[in-house]
Design brief:
By secondary structure, this protein is an alpha+beta fold. It has one domain: CNF1/YfiH-like putative cysteine hydrolases. 20% of the residues lie in helices and 26% in strands. A hairpin with a 2-residue loop joins strand 1 and strand 2. The longest helix has 14 residues. Bound molecules: zinc ion. Zinc ion binds next to loops.
């Protein structure tokens, strides 16, 4: 991932997605907003206890600095599901200005409609962006450990194939900053659920030095699902950025004991 400065904000981009001028994509950071304390400063999450006015202002700052319009940002009320929404023109802007209008019970969104920016918000969970340059289809999804075990990324790839006639071999995938295998410790309960959901846990769960604890590699688990779905390994870009290790640049729920803001990943097909 590369970092770019736009005014006071800093945003990241993925190298392989940057090669397409019909595409806008970005990962926001904490920098350049007006929220304070644990939310400092570019919190874009309405649902975390921050002041709504400040969150809206932060979103406007981000959209303005990226030379786009907040009314194009489209959010879901994420619930760690494997539910995927096909986003059409009527959905454009849902959840951009307030929490209530976001798409309900959805963790993945796909579209081929221009000028709709699909947005996911995270603070430890993995934000994943997908692009099919052949069929001109984009996707954004949110995969924490629950969504990963429910195979949200598999569901999104499948929906792109089913609804837009995409082929997995043409897709590019990008995994944004999230809690990495350096830090993401889970208990026996998650270990058991993972074994039931995924079967083979090779490279996904590793032993921790602490008794009753394990290291869950969210990146490896999602990359495996992408490859199993037919996405080529060379088309998968992992930022490899751990937000707990890089807590000054990215919100991390674990680093801040659950009381923190959200950063976001967005992707949009531009109208030419
Ligand atoms: Zn880490």
């Amino acid at each position: 991932m590369r970092y770019h400065h736009h005014g006071a904000i800093t945003a990241g981009t993925f190298e392989q997605l940057s090669g397409f001028d019909r595409l806008l994509h970005f990962v926001s950071t904490r920098e350049g907003g007006i929220s304070s304390g644990n939310f400092s400063s570019l919190n874009i999450g309405f649902h975390v206890g921050d002041d709504n006015f400040r969150v809206l202002k932060n979103r406007r700052i981000l959209a303005d600095e990226l030379r786009t319009d907040l009314s194009r940002f489209t959010f879901a009320n994420q619930c760690h599901s494997a539910n995927v929404a096909v986003v059409n023109e009527a959905c454009k802007g849902r959840g951009a200005m307030e929490l209530e209008s976001a798409l309900p019970h959805t963790d993945g969104m796909i579209t081929n409609v221009k000028n709709i920016c699909l947005c996911v918000q995270v603070a430890d969970c993995v934000p994943i962006l997908l692009y099919d340059p052949v069929r001109q289809v984009i996707a954004a999804l949110h995969a924490g450990w629950k969504g990963t075990l429910r195979k949200i990324v598999t569901a999104v790839v499948g929906k792109m194939v089913q609804h837009y006639d995409s082929r997995a071999e043409n897709m590019l995938a990008a995994l944004g900053p999230s809690n990495g295998p350096c830090c993401y410790e889970v208990g026996d309960d998650v270990f058991r659920e993972a074994r039931m959901a995924l079967g083979n846990l090779k490279d996904v769960i590793k032993p921790s030095s602490k008794p009753g604890k394990h290291i869950f590699d969210q990146w490896a688990a999602n990359i495996r699902q992408l490859k199993d779905a037919g996405v080529k390994e060379e088309n998968i870009e992992n930022s490899g950025v751990c937000c707990q290790c890089n807590n000054s640049l990215f919100y991390s729920s674990r680093a801040d004991n659950g009381h923190t803001g959200r950063f976001m990943a967005g992707i949009m097909l531009k109208k030419r």
